[in-house]
Design goal:
The chain has about 1700 residues and is an all-beta fold.
């Protein structure tokens, strides 16, 4: 049985071997063989086979090379004469017959295969046929080692569409070929195949399929096979793509959840795939099917997953992308967030629930108050989206998430406390100042609007208190710095309801007293102008009034007569002085510190600086004076200030002299005048320039030649330029005698006109004695004769050429016998020429130029220069230039040739034809037109040249000109094929044809775009047209060099570099029912000769046959079938095709109609609503339709008949239309579009009321609507914004959107539509007030018809029949003062601003929407009424103020606005103020007014040193205070000025004030003591003159002796002194004193003295009578004009009487 199987196996191997090597073998790539099969060879004898020796007729084929163990070899016995297979051969080894064994197998009748070969198989072999034919023995050599066969691959994975290269290596490969094997199954060896389509001679092969590959070497004759190599496994990657998906697709999975991983093969078709998985987790088994299911996920399942599909053992897809699976071991916790924890008034809070860590797929459940199993539903809040809810109730909220079919819940979130906020309260401050100063008392109050009967507790946020405050008021009894900060409050009704925090009110408490700040818009008051002073408090705060002071810090501020008050804190002043200010606020005025002082100066018109002499530049050593002049200065004694370049001395005079000017005196000078607080402005600068050098005169002449009968003007000036000069002229030599009038005509200063030739000088001089400049440089003046000079040239050519001889001659017209010398102006000679001729023997280029001459009789008399003659010498031989008006002689015509030499004159011209010969053309050769022109009618080469002179001087020959004669024949260019545009690659031919050419032998010329080749043929062929061949082509025929046709007309060739593309257009893309569409094909470049081919379906198919379409014309067909259409054009033979056109899809419309419907059918949809768009096909029947949608929105619907929008957004807005498609090219028409509008905002309900007050027994109608207007709404009504809408018992429902209410309250509404209901936002609330029957009445206490300013009154609101009801109250008034909401309104201090009408109403405390009607108004009128209070001013040395002491009878004030003072005997001050109301409201005190007495008083007196009235400005003056006090101050008042203290104008030393000399001025002085006393007042006058009167400063008593004297500032008296009393001379002698031995009252009066025409000022001497009248200390009552007006103070005009005579003892000064 085993032998039988072996035989069968051998036969199969033999059959396979013969089939593999037979001719005409199968072309298939692979032939199936079985492992162990042996391949046999053909009969051809290889060169490696030993032939053996022919013994008999058999040959043994055996390898003559050494085999290796494991090889396979086939020995073949070849019969020499008998056909094959007819005899059987027997094989012998080492003489013994071989029996077939395991490794010895017969192959047919004449071959034996040894497989595998071993060393024992080596030996001598022979074979013998049955007929006795025997071969010679042959040796088979076998080596003991195995042959190495190795297979390698450049890679083991074949990418999609790629390949792998295999390399087979065989040990000792000489003569071997290569076999390759592929096995496609790991387990089934029957799948092993031999590769056929390979190159067996190559050890490399390229494969494109996966498998298990081996190789071996083989030789064909004899058949030797090596062992197979080890297998190499190659994996093939197929193009299909593996996609891994996760169900559910959550990026994070939590422990215990079930998930499925699914591997999908794209384009997998019907292939039976197995799957491979690659999880990174170690505890997950890799399945081989497409799904991997995890029943209960754990943390160990986390990792990266991927998959691939396998078609067989060696073909698979690439790995899919990884999916990362994250499994969390912990249950997730929900996280609840609120966009706010406070629900605003009328608003809501959005709560958002999410899962942490972030994951997807959750639904959310929200809970209120506590963690209960029942989540919130729609009535509890507005659900916005998954995880979001809008709530309007306070409370404690939780949430949790759940997902999956069997809900998997997260842990509950942490709770969030939501507080419902009512309208925020208001913090008010009393008094309402932004900044409070240390020690003030303030109160902050928390007020809640419409708080009803709710019992509120309060919370405060304050800067420093740690104690919780629950009252509505917070008082600070004494403000401190630590109280500064922000204060806010809120009210709380319960745990979840409170007001919002009020807006913060900022309190600033300053620890330091503020200081006033005074600013001026300028410190100088301009002429006729003023300065604005602004007082402010620093740091800035409110409530201040401002007080301004002048000269010193006194308690009396400036009033209206002193200044112009612009606004609070601003005044305009027009007087110079020292100014201060301060601020004050509050009932008891709280003052700031005084501001720093500002000095204001009154500016008078600026002076003018003049210069004598007034020269802008002064020379060293000159004397000059500068004077400061003040316009309209009157008698004012001015001191002066100067600004000069070098003076360090303070100049006070009005003149500034420089006796001898120096360079250092150069510069700018200006001045100003000053007196106390008045000064001029600085004058304008005057600039002084002192030069250190003597100036030099400069002489100029308007010409140096005096023309015939004319003259020359000489001008002398000083350089540098300056003024004040006179000029002196000199002729010949510099002499001391200047020219006078006979020598010239003097035109003006610095100019003279002369008519004589000669040498002239000048110099300048100015001042007395004359200061001379240096002499000017001389100028030589020549006098011109009437004779004229002329230059002539021989020969007279404008241009001379190098080497010619010429002569220039100077000729003087009408010269007679005068002996002349000559002067020449020539280009290059430095030699002084005196002859009348100038010869050039050999002209050179350097002789070129202008030549002129003149004749001279002596040094200062000559002719004028001749006109110049220009000589041009050229260094090169000129060249003739030949021009032709054309180079072609037209048929029957001629050409004009012109010869010229450029540039020069005097030439004759010679013309030549042909070569350059000495024989020029003559008349028969041409028509000579003029010198240099000839007309020729023969073609040829022409030249010319010029010549001039007796011995002719020739130019060079001109360049030749070729003249061509045109024949009458005409050339024409033709194009084959004749297309206007040629495409790249086409072959074309251009031909030049000559009309009526006869037998003439022509050569041709071409003008073509790009060829530089000289073409002479009549044809120009382009085998492959290119873009560069485009252009114009023309030609002509030539008979010889000078005879040709004219150029042909050009033919334009256009070659396009790109293949043209056909363009397909359709008159419609939809074929209407029963209709057709016309298609038009064209080539989109202007060209001709095209035919058109049409295609439907695939564009590379055959064109559409004519019977399938309706051809209309070339390029047009009509089609009635839908499909994809192309076209292209073609022309020529063979056809040159265009590119295919772009395709056009033609759709065949069916009769059915598509309609889009919207559910619900609302014109406007709001964001978040659910809607459905449906596409319906009318009469669609059972047809299976697919659907298409088009929309202008950004959201494209899917191709279904229904498009549901679960959550509408603005992006869904747009027009929608649809159509149904039966197949790719048959569809309905597009439906009519339906417009969808989605609004991004939730609509808001709008609530309106026909009235807000419900009349007694009546009702109010409320109307609710949705804005913007839309349809489908139902309306829900709320009172006090509860969660439950109102029902029928609460209101009367009138119609949709209208109700009638009879209860007061706060009403809201909202709209809702759809299922589930979609709600609008709540409307704004409307407060409805119910009017009660009770009546409110306003009463006034006290009930006076007139109220005066300052009085206290009470307004009361009373509710008739109010019973025990608790009321709140409201007031309205036409006054500017709004009452608080109490039943009583007290006005503690009535003012005019309280005047007006007042009415009130009551509101029930427990029901704020129920109130009475407004009461009838009561009218309140407040009038002003004032009383006057009078005070004596008492000095207070602790400050700069006066304290006040009430005068008798003034404690309650007076109704009169004047007060009489009785019995006053010495100096005193008075002031007043006004007041009104109870308690009294006072104005500020008036400014004090003084009554001065000259009498000495023992308690306080003032003396002057020196003891006189008049003083020189240089005197040292002091005043001394004496009396019953150790503390003193001295005060003064200047006429038309202001008060001031000694510290402002002197130095106080104890009780003595030393007056500064620069502050001295006429004034009244007095002392004030620390005990409150005033001294007598004295007058002191300061005299700026040189003479004064010495007179007593105090009054003298009758009977006393008095001496008055006259005193001079510096001089002594040398003549009589005159004394006057009341302008009457009373003494005239040499005495300098006036002595009165016993003075009497008649001696009282004005005294003055006079000496040497100088008069002193007058002074008053007062005489006290010895006794006084008994009736009164003062004969006349002194009425002090202290009148106070109603507004504040009417100030008396302050008049200073220097002296006033009195019949009594005293005299008084008023101010």
């Amino acid at each position: 049985m085993g032998h039988t199987l072996l035989c069968v196996l051998g036969l199969l191997l033999l059959n396979t071997f013969l089939c593999r090597h037979a001719e005409g073998q199968n072309n298939e790539d692979e032939i199936t063989v079985h492992m162990g099969d042996v391949q046999t060879g053909q009969n051809n004898v290889s060169s490696d086979v030993g032939d053996g020796k022919k013994g008999g007729d058999a040959i043994l084929e055996i390898p003559d090379f050494t085999l290796f163990e494991g090889d396979s070899v086939t020995l073949r016995c070849r019969h020499q004469g008998t056909p094959r297979n007819e005899l059987k051969a027997t094989f012998f080894k080492d003489g013994s017959s071989l029996q077939m064994a395991t490794n010895h197998q017969s192959v047919g009748t004449e071959a034996m295969t040894i497989y595998p070969v071993s060393v024992s198989d080596g030996g001598a072999y022979k074979c013998q046929f049955d007929d006795g034919a025997e071969s010679e023995p042959r040796q088979l050599k076998v080596e003991a080692d195995k042959r190495q066969v190795t297979l390698t691959a450049d890679k083991t994975i074949i990418p999609p569409g790629g390949s792998v290269t295999l390399t087979c290596s065989v040990e000792n490969p000489a003569g071997f070929k290569y076999e390759w094997f592929r096995q496609t199954s790991d387990t089934d060896t029957d799948t092993k195949t031999r590769l056929q389509s390979v190159n067996f001679d190559d050890s490399h092969t390229v494969i494109r399929h996966g498998g298990r590959y081996t190789c071996r070497g083989w030789r064909r004759e004899p058949e030797v096979l090596t062992p197979e190599s080890d297998a190499v496994t190659i994996q093939e990657t197929v193009p299909n793509r593996a996609i891994l998906t996760l169900e559910p697709n959550w990026p994070q999975i939590f422990s215990g959840e079930t998930i499925t991983l699914r591997c999908e093969i794209q384009g997998g078709g019907d292939t039976q795939w197995t799957y491979e998985w690659e999880p990174t987790s170690s505890n997950t088994q890799s399945p081989t099917h497409s799904e991997s299911r995890i029943i209960s996920a754990t943390e160990s399942h986390s990792g990266d997953y991927r998959c691939k599909g396998r078609k067989d053992s060696y073909s698979s897809t690439e790995w899919s992308d990884y999916i990362k699976l994250t499994t969390s071991p912990q249950r997730p916790k929900a996280q609840l967030r609120a966009d706010d924890t406070d629900i605003p008034v009328g608003g809501s809070v959005t709560l958002t629930c999410s899962v942490n860590p972030s994951s997807s797929g959750w639904k959310y459940f929200l809970y209120r108050v506590e963690t209960t199993p029942e989540p919130l539903t729609t009535p509890d809040g507005v659900f916005l989206s998954t995880g979001q809810i809008r709530v309007s109730q306070g409370g404690l909220y939780w949430c949790r998430g759940g997902r999956g079919d069997t809900l998997y819940y997260t842990e509950y979130s942490d709770p969030i406390r939501i507080i419902k906020i009512f309208a925020k309260p208001v913090v008010t401050l009393q008094p309402n100042w932004s900044e409070i100063y240390d020690g003030e008392k303030i109160t902050l109050r928390c007020e809640i609007m419409n708080r009803g009967n709710t019992q509120w507790t309060y919370e405060w946020i304050i800067p420093k208190s740690n104690t919780p405050l629950t009252n509505n008021e917070y008082s600070i009894s004494r403000a401190q710095l630590s109280d500064s900060g922000d204060y806010s409050c809120k009210g709380r009704r319960d745990s979840y309801s409170s007001t919002d925090w009020s807006d913060a009110i900022r309190l600033t408490v300053s620890s330091q007293r503020p200081k006033a700040q005074l600013r001026a818009d300028g410190t100088d008051i301009p002429v006729g102008g003023s300065v604005t002073l602004t007082c402010s408090v620093n740091p800035s705060s409110s409530g201040w009034k401002y007080f301004l002071y002048r000269v010193e810090t006194t308690p009396e501020p400036l009033t209206t007569p002193d200044v112009v008050f612009l606004s609070t804190g601003q005044i305009r002043v027009s007087q110079g002085g020292l100014y201060w200010c301060r601020g004050g606020r509050g009932d008891t005025v709280y003052y700031t510190e005084y501001s720093d002082s500002i000095s204001i100066y009154r500016i008078i018109e600026k002076p003018v600086v003049t210069l004598q002499p007034n020269w802008p530049e002064i020379y060293y050593g000159e004397k000059i004076t500068l004077r400061c002049e003040i316009k309209d200065r009157g008698n004012t004694q001015w001191t002066y200030e100067w600004k000069t370049p070098k003076s360090n001395t303070r100049q006070t005079n009005n003149e500034y002299s420089i006796s001898r000017a120096q360079l250092s005196d150069s510069g700018d000078y200006r001045c100003k005048g000053r007196d106390s607080y008045s000064s001029t402005d600085w004058s304008d600068y005057i600039r002084l320039t002192v030069s250190s050098q003597t100036p030099k005169a400069q002489l100029r002449a308007d010409g140096t030649d005096i023309p015939v009968g004319g003259s020359v003007t000489l001008t002398c000036s000083v350089n540098p330029s300056s003024s004040g000069w006179k000029y002196f002229w000199y002729k010949g030599k510099k002499t001391s005698e200047p020219l006078t009038t006979p020598d010239g005509v003097f035109l003006s200063t610095g100019q003279i006109r002369v008519s004589q030739g000669g040498l002239y000088w000048c110099r300048g001089g100015r001042g007395v004695p004359v200061y001379y400049t240096e002499y000017s440089d001389p100028i030589s003046i020549s006098k011109i004769f009437a004779k004229k000079s002329v230059v002539t040239l021989q020969p007279n050519w404008s241009e001379i050429y190098d080497g010619e001889k010429i002569t220039l001659r100077c000729e003087i017209m009408n010269s007679r016998n005068t002996q002349w010398t000559f002067e020449w102006k020539i280009p290059k000679s430095n030699t002084h020429l005196t002859n009348n001729e100038y010869s050039i023997n050999s002209a050179e280029r350097s002789h070129s130029g202008d030549y002129s001459c003149k004749g001279r009789r002596d040094s200062y008399y000559s002719t004028d220069w001749s006109d110049a003659i220009t000589l041009t010498v050229s260094s090169q031989t000129p060249k003739a230039q030949l021009r032709a008006d054309d180079t072609d002689i037209p048929v029957g015509g001629s050409v004009i040739l012109t010869c010229s030499v450029n540039p020069s004159s005097g030439w004759k011209y010679f013309l030549y034809r042909g070569e350059t010969t000495p024989e020029p053309l003559t008349t028969p050769d041409g028509i000579f037109l003029s010198n240099g022109q000839i007309r020729v009618s023969q073609g040829g080469l022409y030249r010319c040249r010029g010549g001039r002179g007796d011995s002719v001087y020739y130019t060079e020959y001109s360049d030749p000109i070729s003249v061509n004669k045109i024949l009458a024949k005409k050339s024409v260019v033709t194009l084959q094929p004749n297309w206007s545009e040629i495409y790249d690659g086409e072959k074309i031919t251009l031909r030049c044809e000559i009309m009526n050419s006869g037998n003439t032998q022509w050569t041709f010329e071409w003008k073509i775009p790009k060829s530089n080749t000289h073409l002479t043929n009549n044809e120009y062929s382009i085998n492959s047209a290119e873009w560069s061949h485009s252009g114009d082509y023309r030609c002509k025929g030539r008979r010889d060099s000078y005879y040709s046709t004219d150029w042909s007309d050009a033919i334009t060739l256009t070659v396009t570099s790109r293949r043209p593309k056909a363009q397909l257009r359709a008159d419609g893309t939809d074929i209407p029912v029963g209709g057709s569409v016309t298609l038009t094909c064209s080539v989109n470049l202007s060209s001709s000769g095209w035919k058109y081919f049409w295609y439907r379906g695939e564009k590379y198919s055959r064109p559409i046959a004519t019977q399938n379409v309706s051809p209309l014309s070339t390029g047009q067909i009509r089609v009635s079938q839908g499909g994809l259409y192309w076209c292209r054009g073609g022309r020529g033979d063979p056809v040159y095709p265009t590119d295919y056109s772009d395709s056009i899809s033609i759709n065949n419309d069916v009769a059915n109609k598509a309609v889009v419907t919207l559910q619900p059918n609302w014109s406007e949809i709001y964001s978040g609503e659910k809607i459905t768009l449906r596409c319906e096909i009318k009469d669609g029947g059972d047809t299976e339709w697919t659907y298409e949608w088009k929309t202008t929105s950004s959201r494209k619907p899917s191709n279904q008949d229904e498009h549901t929008i679960w959550f509408a957004t603005v992006s869904h807005s747009g027009e929608y239309s649809c159509k149904g498609r039966r197949d790719s090219y048959s569809s309905t028409d597009w439906s009519d579009a339906i417009t969808l509008t989605v609004s991004s905002q939730t609509p808001k309900a709008e609530l309106r009321a026909d009235d807000t007050d419900i009349p007694v027994g009546g009702s109010v109608t409320l109307t609710c609507s949705v804005n913007p207007s839309s349809s489908g709404w139902k309306y829900f009504w709320y009172r006090e914004k509860t969660s439950e809408p109102l029902t029928t018992p609460d209101v009367v429902f009138l119609s949709t959107g209208q109700i009638s209410v009879s209860q007061g309250g706060l009403y809201w509404c909202r709209g809702g539509r759809g299922d589930p209901v979609y709600y609008t936002e709540y409307s704004d609330p409307i407060s409805i007030y119910k009017t009660l029957a009770n009546k409110a009445v306003v009463t006034l206490q006290p009930n006076w018809s007139e109220i005066y300013s300052g009085e206290k009154i009470t307004l009361r609101c009373e509710i008739k029949d109010g019973g025990d009801t608790e009321w709140t109250y409201e007031w309205k008034t036409t006054s500017s003062r709004k009452p608080s909401n109490q039943n009583e309104h007290r006005i503690w201090f009535a003012t005019v601003s309280h005047s007006g009408e007042y009415s009130c109403k009551g509101r029930m405390k427990h029901d704020q929407q129920s109130s009475t009607e407004w009461s009838d108004p009561i009218k309140l009128t407040v009038l002003d009424r004032w009383r006057f209070f009078w005070y004596k001013a008492v000095p207070d040395l602790s400050s700069n103020y006066y304290s006040s002491e009430l005068l008798p009878g003034s404690s309650n004030g007076t109704e009169q606005d004047s007060y009489i003072v009785h019995g006053q005997t010495h100096t005193a001050g008075y002031k007043c103020r006004v007041g009104r109301g109870d308690p009294v409201y006072y104005t500020q005190d008036s400014k004090p007014k003084f009554v001065w007495s000259g009498d000495l008083h023992p308690s306080a007196s003032l003396t002057v040193s020196p003891d006189r009235v008049q003083h020189f400005t240089s005197d040292s003056v002091s005043v001394n205070c004496e009396g019953n006090s150790t503390e003193w101050r001295v005060r003064t008042f200047k006429e038309n000025s202001y008060w001031s203290y000694c510290s402002s104008w002197g130095t106080m030393n104890g009780s003595t004030c030393n007056i500064d000399s620069y502050w001295q001025s006429d004034a009244v002085y007095w002392c004030e003591s620390g005990s409150g006393e005033f001294s007598n007042a004295v007058n002191i006058t300061i005299q700026k003159t040189d003479i004064i009167l010495v007179s007593p400063v105090h009054p003298v008593n009758e009977g006393d002796s008095v001496s008055l004297s006259c005193r001079l500032r510096k001089q002594t008296f040398e003549s009589n002194v005159f004394f006057y009393l009341n302008e009457k001379l009373i003494q005239n002698d040499t005495r300098r004193e006036l002595n009165i031995s016993a003075v009497s009252k008649s001696d009282e009066g004005f005294y003055k003295c006079q000496y040497s025409q100088r008069m002193s000022a007058q002074s008053w001497m007062s005489v006290n009578a010895v006794s006084r009248p008994e009736s009164s200390p003062f004969p006349l009552p002194l009425i002090v004009g202290l009148v106070c007006g109603i507004i504040l103070i009417i100030i008396l005009l302050l008049l200073l009487y220097r002296y006033r005579p009195s019949k009594g003892k005293n005299f008084f000064f008023f101010f």
